[in-house]
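Can anyone check this?
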Amino acid sequence: MGGFGSGNRQQGGRLTVGQCLQLDVAKLKAHGLFEKPAKWQWRWSTGSIVQVDTRNEGFVTLKYSTAQEEPREYNIRLEATPQHLGGKRHWFICPSWRCNRRCKTVYLRSGYFLCRQCQKLGYVTEQASKSNYPHHQIEKIRARLGWTPGYLNGHEVKPKGMHWKTYYRLIERHEVQAQVLDSVLKKLIGRMIP
């Protein structure tokens, strides 16, 4: 009855974006697949492989197989919008016939890569309890600073290339969230000790 971390927590919840394989248009651009169209094999840590082909103008061809089903091959339409200071931003057009929404990332679920809304995926932060929020914020700040995860690891050096003003702002946010997390943990420990 009522141990550490119990209460005010959604059990189960819906699947989150982090639990699905994802294909991000920014990563394709980083590999130069829009400037010089080519074939590329995308590997995930799960061992899954997706072949990405950008040689068709205005489309990305995906070729892959899932564990339960036969191999699939289909096109995802691309759209490019101009940037204010020049260049283009590329978007996937969700291949669902009901959607056709512009999206930056498509997620593999039920055998197809579709947008987050079509896959009915949530975010981890939507399902987190209020007491977990400070911890999540601290970890986000630490990741942005390139620091070791865990607020008990203390401060590390400023990342190269980061403005001092940004660095100090992130440090201040980190300290505020650390104080909030400390008070949450004290309350939880106070409830556990009679």
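Reply from J.R.: I decoded it. Residues 4 and 191 are 9 Å apart (CA to CA).
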